[in-house]
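Fold it.
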Amino acid sequence: MDGAIAGWLAGLPLDLILSPWALGLLGLAVGSFLNVVAHRMPLMLERQWWGDVAAQLLDAESFKRVFGSEAPERLKMAGGTVEKALADTPVLTLSKPGSRCPACGHRIRFYENVPVISWLVLRGKCSACGTRIGWRYPLVELGTAALFAALAWRMGPQPVVLLWCAMAAVLLALTLIDWDTTVLPDALTLPLMWAGLAAAALGWLPGLSLPQSLGGAMLGYVSLWSVYWLFKLTTGKEGMGFGDFKLLAALGAWLGWQAILPIVLMASVLGALVGLVMKATGSLREGRFVPFGPFLAGGGLVVMLVGLQRTLGWIGW
């Protein structure tokens, strides 16, 4: 039976499998998963950080090396408390536990988790307690579907479009996480960069050689790293996080060094406009700043969809 299914799938034409409609449907499913990633990955990171805190508090030799004295007993007790609390906390991964309502704990059944349709049928509410389910969930699913379909239309029915869809999905996940937490996880930015370099090395990115990809990664990282230190030395403040450097390096690896300037210009202008609007409307809380990552990701998506040459033409290159 498995062989028959595999043979049937192999017989399907690429223009059907990789059509905008087919990849749009795939995007709906991927968008549903991205909602899970955006919600759980920051919590998983926080647990990891608390584990690091516990390990440091329990490291008596490190304390003695740094402070020149024995570690106070209260530090060991605090480390033990954190360690025990983590051990007693239920396992959290991208797949476990199953999706539940955060308000009442109702386990979401498979037919309540169909992208967009379930949200509409449930009228945006939990079936058990009636708690509102935000608009962002179906919007992310629809946005991912639209993006996958647009990439399929832009690049045609060729296997490389799946690579670009995967890259776009990671960019969307990074956008959601950074907007919520101002954190760009290394678990996403670094594999994205290495995947771009590997794809260029294998010749899977038409028109992009490995030297161009490597140059893009280097220029992407160094350019924002330089801006960061220039701003910090002149103002004493940090204008962005290190995750932004890595994200732009990843975009450079996929799109080449020529794409760096257009991406940064688009991200800077759009980020400034959004920041001004948020400040004027009072939606930007005191002491908080607008994360730069979503606008870098947006600039990269524009270059992907529009094409590098046309994007360069916009800035007169």
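The first helix runs from residue 2 to 11.
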